[in-house]
Design brief:
With 206 residues, this protein is of the alpha+beta class. The protein has four helices and eight strands. Helices cover 14% and strands 28% of the residues. Helix 3 crosses helix 4.
Length: 206
């Protein structure tokens, strides 16, 4: 992979996220999640995401309205919605659309490009392709927890950097989301067909 350079001037502005959720989800493929640490920068290229729509999407945490847990989803697009699963893992979403909509994009997998040693310290002795494969592993590698819920992704310390070149449409695959029981018929998972870091090739329909 080519040398990665942190370029905050190419970070997506908050307005980028305040658009239709599917549009944002597709545009995030190839973008770089970038975080400044005390030890330096870490970054990974997004290769798999899932969209959770503000309407007619029963798998969306906001489907039944605003609660204490999902309150960040009702903020204007451009903040994180982080939630816990199984009591110890976390999943990281970027909120989309305008305030009050309750929509987000789940960050499912990414290709590490910077900060590998820091990722390994958090993830253990795993192969590079495994460092950010799967939403819980991505969150752990970046050190993102419930303390980051509601944080902006439009800051000098945490942002999403536009890809150097647009991703060709023929490189993007679409499928049902993984692990959802409701809304399984919705093709709202988007991933890069050639990436070895994609979490699953055949999504679970359980």
């Amino acid at each position: 992979m080519a040398l990665f350079v942190v370029e905050p001037e190419r970070a997506f502005p908050c307005a980028f996220f305040r658009r239709p959720t599917v549009e944002v989800a597709r545009a995030l493929l190839g973008a770089l999640l970038v975080k400044r640490e005390a030890e330096g920068w870490c970054a990974a290229r997004l290769v798999e995401v899932e969209a959770y729509l503000p309407e007619a999407d029963p798998a969306n945490h906001a489907y039944r309205g605003k609660t204490r847990r999902n309150a960040a989803m009702f903020e204007p697009g451009g903040v994180l919605y982080v939630y816990a699963i199984y009591g110890k893992h976390h999943c990281v979403n970027v909120v989309t659309e305008e305030a009050g909509r309750g929509a987000a994009v789940l960050l499912r997998a990414a290709e590490p490009v910077l900060g590998h040693e820091l990722f390994r310290r958090r993830r253990g002795a795993v192969a590079d392709v495994e460092l950010c494969r799967g939403p819980a592993n991505l969150a752990r590698a970046f050190g993102l927890t419930l303390s980051h819920n509601g944080r902006s992704v439009c800051t000098p310390e945490l942002f999403l950097q536009a890809p150097a070149e647009p991703i060709p449409e023929e490189d993007i695959e679409q499928s049902p989301r993984i692990g959802v029981r409701r809304g399984r018929e919705l093709l709202l998972r988007f991933f890069l067909r050639t990436s070895p870091c994609v979490s699953a090739r055949q999504p679970s329909m359980l």
